Amino acid sequence: MGDGIDCEVLMSNDIGWKKGKLQLNFTFSLDIVENEDNNEEVSPISDSDQNYKLSPLDDLRQQFNE
Length: 66
Hints:
The protein has 66 residues and is an alpha+beta fold. The chain is 12% helix and 18% strand.
């Protein structure tokens, strides 16, 4: 990786500012685990389902689109 970025950090124990370098290292891991216990089918939400609203503004959007 790189050499880092020069920076100064204010120390809380009355030392004052301490000079150093900032280095960030990130590790990313993606694991997909299939849930075998969940056999439910997920059905898409239809526009006719009036109990479900994506947003409180849906009513206004519908009025403007008419």
